[in-house]
Amino acid sequence: MINENLPKIWYGGDYNPEQWEDPAVWEDDVRMFKLAGIDIATLNVFSWALNQPNENTYNFEWLDETINRLYENGIYTCLATSTAAHPAWMAKKYPDVLRVDFYGRKRKFGARHNSCPNSPTYRKYSERMAHKLAERYKDHPAVLIWHVSNEYGGYCYCEQCEEAFREWLRNRYGTLEAVNKAWNTRFWGHTFYDWSEIVAPNDLSEERPGDVSFFQGISLDYRRFMSDSLLDCYQLEYDAIRKHDSETAITTNLMGTFLDLDYFKWAKQLDVVSWDNYPRIDTPISRTAMNHDLMRGLKSGQPFMLMEQTPSQQNWQAYNSLKRPGVMRLWSYQAVARGADTVMFFQLRRSVGATEKYHGAVIEHVGHEHTRVFQETAKVGKELQQLADQLVDARVEAKVGIVFDWENRWAINLSSGPSVALDYVAEVHKYYDAFYQQNIQVDMIGVDGDLSKYDIVVAPVLYMVKEGYANRLEEFVANGGTFVTTFFSGLVNENDLVTLGGYPGELRSLLGIWAEEIDALHPDKKNKIVTNDSTGSLSGEYTCNLLFDLIHSEGAEVIAEYGEDFYQGMPVVTKNQYGSGQAWYLASSPDQAFLNDFVTTICEEKGIRSLLKAGPGVEVSERVKNGKSYLFVMNHNDHDSTFDLGEERKENLFSGDVISGKVTIEAKDVVILRNEHLGDL
Amino acid sequence: MINENLPKIWYGGDYNPEQWEDPAVWEDDVRMFKLAGIDIATLNVFSWALNQPNENTYNFEWLDETINRLYENGIYTCLATSTAAHPAWMAKKYPDVLRVDFYGRKRKFGARHNSCPNSPTYRKYSERMAHKLAERYKDHPAVLIWHVSNEYGGYCYCEQCEEAFREWLRNRYGTLEAVNKAWNTRFWGHTFYDWSEIVAPNDLSEERPGDVSFFQGISLDYRRFMSDSLLDCYQLEYDAIRKHDSETAITTNLMGTFLDLDYFKWAKQLDVVSWDNYPRIDTPISRTAMNHDLMRGLKSGQPFMLMEQTPSQQNWQAYNSLKRPGVMRLWSYQAVARGADTVMFFQLRRSVGATEKYHGAVIEHVGHEHTRVFQETAKVGKELQQLADQLVDARVEAKVGIVFDWENRWAINLSSGPSVALDYVAEVHKYYDAFYQQNIQVDMIGVDGDLSKYDIVVAPVLYMVKEGYANRLEEFVANGGTFVTTFFSGLVNENDLVTLGGYPGELRSLLGIWAEEIDALHPDKKNKIVTNDSTGSLSGEYTCNLLFDLIHSEGAEVIAEYGEDFYQGMPVVTKNQYGSGQAWYLASSPDQAFLNDFVTTICEEKGIRSLLKAGPGVEVSERVKNGKSYLFVMNHNDHDSTFDLGEERKENLFSGDVISGKVTIEAKDVVILRNEHLGDL
Amino acid sequence: MINENLPKIWYGGDYNPEQWEDPAVWEDDVRMFKLAGIDIATLNVFSWALNQPNENTYNFEWLDETINRLYENGIYTCLATSTAAHPAWMAKKYPDVLRVDFYGRKRKFGARHNSCPNSPTYRKYSERMAHKLAERYKDHPAVLIWHVSNEYGGYCYCEQCEEAFREWLRNRYGTLEAVNKAWNTRFWGHTFYDWSEIVAPNDLSEERPGDVSFFQGISLDYRRFMSDSLLDCYQLEYDAIRKHDSETAITTNLMGTFLDLDYFKWAKQLDVVSWDNYPRIDTPISRTAMNHDLMRGLKSGQPFMLMEQTPSQQNWQAYNSLKRPGVMRLWSYQAVARGADTVMFFQLRRSVGATEKYHGAVIEHVGHEHTRVFQETAKVGKELQQLADQLVDARVEAKVGIVFDWENRWAINLSSGPSVALDYVAEVHKYYDAFYQQNIQVDMIGVDGDLSKYDIVVAPVLYMVKEGYANRLEEFVANGGTFVTTFFSGLVNENDLVTLGGYPGELRSLLGIWAEEIDALHPDKKNKIVTNDSTGSLSGEYTCNLLFDLIHSEGAEVIAEYGEDFYQGMPVVTKNQYGSGQAWYLASSPDQAFLNDFVTTICEEKGIRSLLKAGPGVEVSERVKNGKSYLFVMNHNDHDSTFDLGEERKENLFSGDVISGKVTIEAKDVVILRNEHLGDL
């Protein structure tokens, strides 16, 4: 449990009373928060300039008053540290806080998330701010969690970062010779003879926009370094808080599959993962589900916080559609169903001016509660109060793990060839979606995640195989596991150096194949997947595209062959018996029809079943606690849908009814069904 | 009348004899000008480097000779001040004249319209140039008008501009506290504690290309400031001229709906508006008409100058098509029909080299008069001579005003949300076009324009409502006027701060509605407009798209409802009785079919009729002078068209015939029909 | 012959053993090279940092060993000078080697082809490197040719380049007055009064990305200057080598129709032309053929080197498809058929890391010879050994010359108007392709090429007519030649100044026409070509698009007229009798159907016949040596094709069979047929 002082699904969000001068507004806020069942407010996210109007003055009275006023009204605080945007005076006085951008330009004051992570000034004053806040509020009963900075991201390429990068390299590699070797600098005569010759890889040196690099090794390491540099900034604040407050959880809000940061590494330093969920109207529902599962996976299944979502509308999308009636509630429960222990909004009251004034809020510009958005918000608030603590800290169980690795993703993006259309996250999502469509629970896992608890592990496009990982996969399969990987896997080590001797490198014996060549064609150009399984679960007509490995079986069973082109008849899907388990290889990117049948095939083999057979567009997820199962059934359709519980009797948590047999769920509705859990948790 | 020394529609254009060394060319120019009926030449537009070869030397002999040579041949001068491109020596010696661009880069010498408007050097030498020219030519009988600089535009972001911006802010707001409040800088912690902390908003700070801003307040003010800075440059030259020449009109050439400058503010400082008209082959004819009406509206109906158009071909369009036979003449009269008192070209003779050598000219590279272009030019020249002074200073009368406001446009562009597809000018043009298709005369008016002379005022997307404007609109409607506005109106004040308490803010009581939410969808996604008026003028099947206000009537009559989506049945068109008049609200962007019927409806209510019922593609406009009406009928079609004058007898100014009844007009032809005017002018 | 020590078609490619530490790899390389029939290795292309680890140390032991090891195994060396990428230490110590890019940014160390060509440091050390290498290897029997730097290209805009540009201008024009006149700087007041006022034309001054210029004269001269500056760098190395080695051929590898450099000027300084051929899977085969012919044309028919091609796959294309089975062999012989005396690859062994690790190689990452790619490579190697010296130095004969001129191309690209869709290379290729489809041999010639040996000369879009060239064309036609040119020809001189008095300027009397106007429409908008030749070879239904000259015959016969638009009935194709020959003008860009018939027409008139009538997709080219003809028949189709040799008996060089009559060639196969040559060589 994040904090026992509020033993329920927290409900609230970002709140910026400092933007309002009239105390009557603050009073009205509190009145409406109560109407809406709000019990947590995130404060102080962007108040640095207010808190510290100059180098030596600090001013927290407004914050004292706000925290107290809310607390007196039963509303707790998620306390941010205000360091996500430095004050203008700091940029003026200490330009080292300003970043140099990808294009090599020293930036000026503006926007947010704008500080150089290796700026001495930024590090000094952000740490000091965390220290001052922790010292002041460490014992305040309202403060349930610390929220360091906000949505970390963005890289800097200034000289102080370059110097820090050299130091980071020294720590990682020890010698310059080792760096030269790791980056293969004899290529194009890039050998470095002195540390000072290494410069940051950006548009002035080794890179071009869109993850184009002329030297993958340095570009890959710079991403690691930048992720670490920003993590250092977080850690400085974390440690400063911990000096004063040894217990309260500390987090920072992440952003799903955000590119810049290695969240699996970050998550180790977070007491609880929190994240901001902003799907578009046309975002596939399963993509959001995957993001939730990924956020849950960052800390191996520990419940997370939904730190931000919009009550209705975004402002920075191209077409900021309203969330249709019921959708905010539906998506809130989707988060909870997949592991969230909070439902929080950006924002509680809309700003009157500046960039986010057209971002939705619980309290809109009209300023009263008689709006559709407010009413829907209040309904959820009441329901969460009704649910009390029964879902808090409940876990999600899965027998399928899907591997996701940021370093692998960076390396794939940076690769020059074979295809610009290769999108790692899209490939991962294709596999995720195939399980999702059948309501089979999945964990998203990193490459240091425990494999032994899964029956099936899927690692799409496992291009980079880190030290020891091939052995762990072999052990997993040898012990009976089913492993699935794809084209463009096993090619390189952690330094993006090719594992010589034949693709897929370290995975070759596990998979029982050799990939001789990799064809790349325009994604519109498809090949056929021809299976021999004319009556089984893989008997359909399928296509594939994108990349086409030309593989030879070295012991693997050929499940399907290419149906066209000069490699017609070569294997496209293979299955290798390895110890007690099986290792599958998909040599091209199959269509969804194949993946659905494929998932059916491997799940049937392992006896993994759907949580509930429901129609298309009906999502099912389960949380488990104290021997009880909480089954979330969510109808994303615009029409009613019916599912069949069979003879099992479950309690509808909202209505209190005990039901069984055929159940109809309305469009956009969600039900939570509780029964005795029969699993092994 | 611009200048009584040439009491006719002026005919001529830009002329650059200084690009030619051979006097024989100059003689040939004059010979051909006479053949073409040309009586005005714009001189000295880009001759700064020639006039002032170094800091202390001035050389105007060539200009003396040119003006005199032309004058002796009956050709007057529109005298430019040559300050639209600084000399290379100046850029070398005084780099402060060079701009810093949007990307933060100090520019080098090149192109044109390239001077920093706050450069001390530029201001000093441009003012001095105006002074020297005025001193020299103030009494020259050839000079009919002054033409300051050329096509002002483009912004600068250098340090001297930043400093000037701070001063501009001090003048506008008085205190830094007021600035912080106007920009709502507590958002994202942007509070400024010292003026020096404010930097120019560009790609290094608060903006991104395409009018994307992270802080609307500063971006909006920077546009005002830049428009003012360039206007200051104009004003410096204006004042320098006025010191010597108290009478001759002074102008600078504008560019229609050009984004950068607030032309309504500029027009106050121009004695006569002039502008450059460069439609593409596929530019809607009504868009050009709107531009002319807008230019006429800048000075409340005062006739304007068509300063530039091409005789045939452009050079900087993607595909520089020829003007088809007759089109140059047709478009010239379109300008006159809508208020132009001059027809002028860029250019009289084509350059032999550099960027515009493929821009059309009266005298082409072939160098003689035996070209289609020259012959068409000469035909118009003769006609304008024939028309003599009868059209000069004639006015256009309209009972419909359409509001156009640059600051509103900037604010809409800068808004983060709700839709990137919202295009203010396109929305205004949709309404304009609906009147245009019915040949109903319209005035384009600014937000400080007099409303009392109109029966109908349409203000599409009146997002920003400036101080006092809502009251003026209420007064207009209370006194019987019909007011029309749309979705995304009434939201903010002049500082882009939201008017709280419910959209459309200050317009809410006038319109009798409350807009609770604003949905934004991809423009391809359409809703239906369902009216109850099954037999009336609004009985069609209509659609709408783009934005969809979810409105509630607070007294307004619901004229039409949405036909789809979750807001099916909510009002989409309302009409509110307010005093003696009516205020309409269109909650989404309707299709053209609806707008046509809508215009018919409101014009019928006010008894406003078409100037002439003519077929599609036949444009009609009227000018009025001394109790006479001059009706321009222009056939933009590629085929003949027939219209019916009824029993009224009119004189065809070109043929001299007096006609009535059915009249056939040839493809691309124009007729001007004179009769006694029955109006109230 | 390039070098008599290896009297056969050389076979090999780029080889980088310095990237491998294990001598066992080197031994294996040699073993496999022998298996593949490889006899030449290009060494030392990117080894500068290895050769010169600091300012005063040079280290060539590795190179000695490599050359010797290869030579002992029968493999010769193409010795590169390693100067295509400066070492990191040099960039750090002497930043003058770093370029300033088009956007005005001083670059940092990174990528390759990255040195400022006017950098004193670069020039000093690159010359010194060439000197040291030549001194060391001048007598080494393994070295067959010198390979200076690599793929020269890219421009710099730094201050030292600006200064050198001024000097270059002084040399070209003598006086600043002459520069002002050549650039027509009175336009937009750009007159220069001091050399120092001239700055480099880039995105900070006169240009925008995509060859957009605001001042064509300076932009055109800067391209000439940059081409010359890079050529100076080449020449410095050339001369340094020549000081030590007076005999061995020297080259640098070119890149087909690469934009940056005037290859006709460069070729004069190359002893033998070499080039790198990297078509995509969808590159028209005839485009590659044209490139080969162009490379052959650079030195007036002298055989060239195919310096680089990939054995199978690229890495930097969007979709790096494999070369289908047989295609590498087919394309290798296409090069030989069109004049190549070498078949060489990038690369012999794939890198283990960095940018090109997914670029194909003879030895793939798997490291052994049991791959499709290796086997196909070895097959070609054996064949080339079998062919021995019989094709070496054989020539290609053509009676048709197609003009290609880089300066003309630059001027067209830079032109503001009339159409952004005008693509010089695409227009040239359209004409080339029409001959190619009929297997009519063509020479690609520069504007100083000898015309007298051709029956037909085609100069598509000959926009720029250099001094004396019109006279030479007139002489060619007067003597009986057929000349063909098109719209947008004859407009300007070498300074991009318009030739006044009527288009097509200096070509007007030769062509017997006057082009009064040039219409430009969106390329989708087509006109019709209507011929009077209802029964002849030009009797089809044809269209044209892009640009439409409105021409008047001044003596030329009108062969076809426009069928639409207001210029319907005006000439679109004319033929002018001039002396004993004929000059054709195509006033618009015709479709391929027209061009095919047109080529048939003019070739029939001149008695020029197809080398061999073969079906679509079957390319035929001929080389001639010592009175023997070598006819290459290449089937690019995916299916068999049959052609008819008639009664002529020819020897199939691969099979040794003597054949005649109908012959079937397999998909992707090539045959070389030898017989007695009856021509005049």
From TrEMBL, chains A, B, C:
Q: Start and end of every Beta-galactosidase C-terminal domain?
A: 617-675
EC nos: 3.2.1.23
- Domain called Glycoside hydrolase family 42 N-terminal: residue spans: 14-387
Swiss-Prot/TrEMBL keywords? Glycosidase, Hydrolase
One Pfam family hit: Glyco_hydro_42M
- What GO molecular-function term can you cite, just one? beta-galactosidase activity
Q: What class of enzyme is it?
A: hydrolase
Reaction catalysed by this chain?
Hydrolysis of terminal non-reducing beta-D-galactose residues in beta-D-galactosides
Query: Which residues belong to any copy of the Beta-galactosidase trimerisation domain?
Result: 398-608
Q: Which CDD domains match?
A: A4_beta-galactosidase_middle_domain
Provide the family line: Belongs to the glycosyl hydrolase 42 family.
Designated name of the protein: Beta-galactosidase
> What organism is listed for this UniProt entry?
Aquibacillus albus
